[in-house]
Structure formats: structure tokens, C-alpha cells
């Protein structure tokens, strides 16, 4: 298991255990996400959309009073049918373990993320000239 601390968490403060790699920063984090069986992440847009684009299953925990994560990110992920929203306050170890098992057994059905944004913008710009 790979645990990656956020920018405000000192990896030295995190627990260690057999089979657990703890990192503070990984320049190739997306490579780990592409290869993972499942990810458990905070509800940030970049990370969750990278997981959505790569078709990886994930659980996400929006920060309790974070407007973007609770509304914008959740709305966008719902539109793609991606990820499983979790509540940190109610996700004890048993709930988390059950959700992981359920997601690993489920066939991902998220909608493909569009990759033609630059071409669409260019087409709109050429229409202006």
C-alpha cells in the first residue's frame, strides 16, 4: 500500500507498518494512480479527475466545510458516474473496509473524460477570424 501525505502533513508524523510505503511528495503520483487497484483520496478536483480519466475506482472524502469539494467536485464526479463519496465523520475502519471491498467487486461504469478540449477551443477561435 502506498500512502501519500498532503502538502500540509509531515510524512514523519504518519504511522508505519509492514507493506506500507509512506511518501510526502511523489512527482510521478499519476503513475501510481494509474496502477492502483483502488484509491482512497480527499475530494480534490485534480486527483479525482485524474482517477476518473484513468478509469480507476476510488473513494473520496470531501473536506467538511469546503464548498468546491462538496458541491462543484461532487457534481462533476456525479456527472461522470465516478468515485464513491464518503463521509470522514462516519467512516470507521469497518465502513471503510466494506466500501473498499464493494468498489473492488464493482465493474467501473464511469463515463469517459473528454480529451479534445484544446481542439474544440481552437475550432471556436478560428470561427472568430
How would the blueprint of this fold be written?
Blueprint lengths: L1 E3 L16 E3 L5 H7 L3 E4 L2 H10 L3 E4 L5 H14 L3 E2 L7 H13 L11 H12 L1
Parallel strand pairs: 1-2, 3-4, 4-5
Helix pairs in contact: 2-3
Structure characterization notes:
- The model has no long low-confidence stretch (mean pLDDT 92).
- The chain is 43% helix and 12% strand.
- It is an alpha/beta fold and 129 residues long.
- The termini are far apart.
- The protein is globular.
- It has helices at residues 29-35, 45-54, 67-80, 93-105, 117-128, and strands at 2-4, 21-23, 39-42, 58-61, 84-85.
- The chain has 5 helices and 5 strands; from the N terminus they run E-E-H-E-H-E-H-E-H-H.
- It has a 3-stranded parallel β-sheet, with helices on both faces. It has a two-stranded parallel ribbon with strand order 1-2.
- The protein has a single domain (36-128), classed as Rossmann fold (3-Layer(aba) Sandwich).
